[in-house]
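HUMAN: Forgive my ignorance: could you write out one protein's sequence and backbone structure tokens?

ASSISTANT:
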Amino acid sequence: MAALGRLPVTPNQITVVGTLFTFLAAVLAAFGELRWAGVVLAFAGTFDILDGALARSTRSAYPYGAFLDSTLDRYSEGAMYLGLAAYFAGMGPSALQRWLILATVAALAGSFLVSYVRARAQSLGFTCETGIFARPERVVVMVVGLILGGWVLYGVVFLLAVLTNLTALQRIREVWLQGRAQRLERQREAAARSTATAASAQRLP
């Protein structure tokens, strides 16, 4: 990071370059170059680490940088799932093809929901950090699926379809528990105030 900090690059530029590499991986996947897509995606994943680390080491982190990083992460994931959907669409018509495309769409929706639930919860003051399949896990699993290909890739797609949505549900439950705790605390406080008011009224002559 010290060496990188001396170069004329900013964390935002690293974020954009990483996104462009992910778009390249998506195009490669769409054209059936799965192994190369996996290699490029793994390389692009390192930029996710570098941009945040550079921002912290150079003390140049600011809200827009975090916003840009999160937004381009969504574009990157969307591009990868679209690339996979295009690859599956080129397969011969079969029940497996239809299920793979459906699973890809479900995984895309689940991935977006995982991020949206967290962002929305945090904007309302909740803590939302749980979940078994956050973005790093999704990227690693997809890289493995792309490099190995075949039935491993098919299994990865179905796995992503299930676990991304399960992660979103885990986060929804976490926020619900916090909201319920807040509601119960307010009810206890209201009951305490009501009791105090009644006691004060009884002491009046």
Helices lie at 2-5, 11-30, 34-57, 63-89, 95-123, 135-148, 150-203. Residues 145 and 153 are 4 Å apart (CA to CA). The chain has a mean pLDDT of 87.
